Amino acid sequence: xxxxxxxxxxxxxxxxGEVVERPASVAKELIENSLDAGxxxxxxxxxxxxxxxxxxxxxGRGIPAAEAALALQRHATSKLYxxxxxxxxxxxxxxGEALAAISAVSKATLVTRYTDEPVGIExxxxxxxxxxxxxxxxxxxxxxSIEHLFWNTPARLKFLRTDATEAGHISRIVTRYALxxxxxxxxxxxxxxxxxxxxxxxxxxxxxxxxxxxEIARQMLPVAGDADRVAPGITVSGFVSEPSLHRANRSYxxxxxxxxxxxxxxxxxxxxxxxxxxxxxxxYPLAILFAKIDPSLVDVNVHPAKAEVRFxxxxxxxxxxxxxxxxxxxxxxxIPPIQTHRPASDRQAWASRRQSLLQAGEPESDPGQLAMAxxxxxxESEQHTALVGSENPTDAPDPVISSxxxxxxxxxxxxxxxxxxLVAEGPAGxxxxxxxxAHERILYEQIVHADQEAVATQQxxxxxxxxxxxxxxxxxxxHLSTLQQSGFELEAFGSGTYLLRAVPAFxxxxxxxxxxxxxxxxxxxxxxxxxxxRENELVKMICKRLAIKAGQVLSAAEQRALLQxxxxxxxxxxxxxxxxxxxHFSATDLAHQFGRT
Length: 597
Ligand code: ADP
Ligand code: MG
What we know:
Layout: H1 8-19, H2 23-36, E1 41-47, E2 53-58, H3 68-71, H4 98-104, E3 107-113, E4 120-126, E5 129-136, E6 141-147, H5 154-159, H6 163-180, E7 185-190, E8 193-197, H7 204-212, H8 214-217, E9 220-223, E10 234-241, E11 253-257, E12 260-262, H9 265-274, E13 287-293, E14 298-299, E15 310-311, H10 314-331, H11 345-360, H12 367-388, E16 412-417, E17 421-426, E18 429-434, H13 435-448, E19 457-467, H14 469-478, H15 480-485, E20 489-492, E21 497-504, H16 512-525, H17 531-546, H18 556-567, E22 582-586, H19 587-593
Parallel strand pairs: 1-7, 11-13
Antiparallel strand pairs: 1-2, 2-6, 3-4, 3-6, 4-5, 7-8, 9-10, 10-13, 11-12, 14-15, 16-17, 17-18, 18-22, 19-21, 20-21
Bound molecules: adenosine-5'-diphosphate and magnesium ion (MG).
């Protein structure tokens, strides 16, 4: 074959391969363009994991009608004019190739109106060629719709994962940019359903809360933005997790340099090192850190996807990050509490009384008498209050239903009924506990808090090789860290195959393979949920599957353990699906029912 210059469309397709790996890469490039255009509102909508449609609409300054066709060409950019500009890049884009690359491998529609122009323009493209063009009335800004991604590059198309997996990748991109740009309102919808929206108020913590949920946001420490003392010209701000919150891998350490998300092993290590002895072995912190550096000290032109950068003084940046995290950990000033856990003093009194009662005689040896004695005491004291105080006992606050910190009083197990409910006694009467709902709650909090000791694992005698097929394996890969937190010791082992080494200890005698398959299947069902919402669903599902069922007879020791663990929960009164775990009948209620008052 003789040497020839490739036709433009072939060259475009080759170049596109570097920039557009999957729908999420398209989302990334389009969002970056919107941010560069000064948008304050960016809406991302997808269908079929972004394969059928991926649309980004913004309210930025738009593209002048006369330049729209040019914007779609390779090496066409408004952000860079000379090689010298490359030394000082303050925008996210600069290579001028994203729109060209994306439109080369899709059917694209660009609708835009430049702020200063009265009408907009619509361009339709198929594989880089403009197939239609017209003037159109539209608000200022840009809307870019990418349909049928990779329709003309079947090899690429084959490598895409399931819609759910691709949707998950896109959601991660959206939430990441939302974190980096708290003044911009981001929204993300899949199959017409809104699944994420950032407040856009400029409040970083509010955005963290939206992305990670209240549980995690509450355990994040602020990192102050004035690292100037450490490294002049570099500031590091953001949030890092309290040492009690950690994950099984590094993927929750998110780094941004001048608002650009970057991957940098060195800086990731700087964060981990700042925690050195504070975390259990093999566990990693969560972090969202924003470094601001003079653009001339950063080279962003390293990688076509612009995910890596080089620093002129890497060790200085390393130190700045490490010290900023260190300072945050030392200050240990948690973000304003969303909930606090403070047992009332009368509960402490009851707790010690219960302790002595439990020691004095095992409840099962003499359950009736003990319970009766306690009830009598309770009744007497309540009737006493009613007689001497102005307080009406029926209006007295109910310690379970109205205690505003939401915690439970210490409970003493009395027994089990219908192999489904526990009967217990507390400082203010009788309690009925749904054993399945209670156990679901306990597991949920253990997993969410990712406390390694709490989520006990049970090693399999021999690692089990499980073939899931690429479809399910993709889902498992995406949620690997949540699964690991839940007690599955799991490792990718070739295409579609996983090696299972350990399972959650409380899984009992269930078939591990079936459990894993079920988990993967129901993840697929939850395809349109994203990010934290999806992980939460996964955890809830695992809890439901693993919790003690109704019909299971519990020994006295098991009943005691269940109640103690429920007491230790932060939100013990409902199961993760919101159903009650516990019902309360006060001594006064009972007295009323029996016609004693
Ligand atoms: P780059 O971002 O590297 O300049 P792109 O191919 O992504 O290259 O975009 C080409 C040009 O099109 C940009 O420089 C910008 O002028 C214009 N552009 C792209 N997207 C938008 C948008 N959403 N709003 C306004 N202008 C845009
Ligand atoms: Mg761009």
